[in-house]
Amino acid sequence: MLPLEIKRSARSRSIRLKIHDDKIIVSGPPYVSEEKLRAFAESKKNWITKNLAQKQQRETHYPLAWPDTLVSGAYLPYLGKQTLFQVLQASEKPAVFWHPDKIILSHFNGFNAQWAQPYMIEAYKNKASELANAWFLKYCPLLGLWPTGLKLKYQKSLYGSLGANNTVHLNWLLVTAPEYVFEYVVVHELSHLKYRSHGPRFWGQVEKLMPNYQEAERWLNNWGRCFKLPDWRAREESNL
Ligand SMILES: [Zn+2]
């Protein structure tokens, strides 16, 4: 069983249980004793076991996982498909070419994992940024509002957010998900420019921009927790 973390928050009104990758968090209002919180977690043992099993099941069936190693001929998740990755010794400067059914990394010489792994991660982030910016151009004129910037980073279990200064933050791993899912997250965050909270007017705005947004929500509910960074570096080191 995973370690248990006890949390209290002045704002919480009830006891809650959450399963994370490496721990279980039980949280509640400050006046509830630690003993009571532990007892609550204990009483939910079956629920926890069932959820952990489901999570593991989902992860083993996740269709868009990264390959174990980054080599020519491997398949990389890109816009909802496992896409053939090919390395070509062809250009003066390294470059990545994104085709619907092929990702080509072109380089002058000296392909090696140490160089290529961070290079490909950067290329993915750039691709995510390019797509997000294209959707800004499509949707911002319809909204009549523009964000002040775009930031891409990896955040566990967060797809996107709108910062206080109206900067859109996106998880770059969205570029591995189907295109309509990534597009939806952009539409969602842009709609927050107009309505900050998730009220009916907010959802009405999302629907106006993207009538089939619920399909994307369903995809995220199923698979959104499977977004993971590639494990290349770790593996390479463990092979030494
Ligand atoms: Zn939101």
What does this structure look like?
There is one protein chain. The chain has 240 residues and is of the alpha/beta class. It has 2 domains: 4-61, no CATH class; 112-226, Metalloproteases ("zincins"), catalytic domain (Zincin-like), CATH 3.30.2010.10. The chain has 7 helices and 10 strands. It has helices at 34-43, 45-61, 113-143, 179-191, 200-209, 213-223, 232-239; strands spanning 4-8, 16-19, 24-28, 75-78, 81-89, 95-99, 102-107, 149-153, 160-162, 167-171. Strands 4-5-7-6 form a 4-stranded mixed β-sheet, with no helix packed on it. Strands 1-3-2 form a 3-stranded mixed β-sheet, covered by helices on one side. Strands 8-10-9 form a 3-stranded mixed β-sheet, with helices on one face. Helix 3 (113-143) crosses helix 4 (179-191), helix 4 (179-191) crosses helix 5 and helix 4 packs across helix 6. The longest helix is centred in the middle third of the chain and has 31 residues, at 113-143. The two termini are 31 Å apart. The site of zinc ion has 3 residues, from loops.
Q: Count of DSSP E strands?
A: 10
Task: Provide the domain count.
Answer: 2
Bound molecules: zinc ion
How would you classify the helix and strand content by structural class?
A: alpha/beta
Spans of at least 5 consecutive residues whose pLDDT stays below 50 are: none
Query: Major beta sheet, specifics?
Result: 4 strands, mixed
Quaternary form: single chain
How would you state the average pLDDT, rounded? Answer: 91
Helix content: 40-55%
CATH superfamily of the largest domain: Metalloproteases ("zincins"), catalytic domain
CATH second-level architecture of the largest domain: 2-Layer Sandwich
What is the CATH class designation of the largest domain? Alpha Beta
- How many helices in DSSP terms? 7
